Amino acid sequence: MSYKRGKWVHRIAILIISIGFVVLCTFAIGRLLHYFNTGTEPGDALNLSPNIILEHTPKIEWLEPDPRIQENLGQNKFLIKEIEENYINSWYLLNLSIKNGKPISLEDNFSEIPRSSIALASSSFENEPSFEVRRADLSHTLRLNWMAPDLQICAFEDYGVNLIKRVVDKKSNDIISEQELIMDFQVVMTLEDGRWRIRHIVADTIQPLNTDTLARTGREGYLTEIENVQGVNYYPRETPWHDFWSSYNDTIISTDFRLIDSLGFNTVRVFIPYEHFGKGNVKISEVEKLQNLLDIAEESGLQVIVTLFDFLYYFDVMSYPAIERQLEIIADSIKNKPALLAWDIKNEPDLDFEHYGKDRVKRWLDFVITRLREYDQTTPITIGWLDPLAAPEYHEVVDFVSFHYYEKPENFLSNLHELRDSIDGEKSILIEELGLSTFNLLIAGNSENDQARYYEEMLDAISSDIHTSFALWTLYDFEDIPNQVVGPLPWKKIPQKAYGLIKIDSTAKLSIDVIQKYLK
Question: What confidence tens digit (pLDDT) does each residue in 73-93 have?
Answer without folding.
Answer: 766 778 899 999 999 999 999
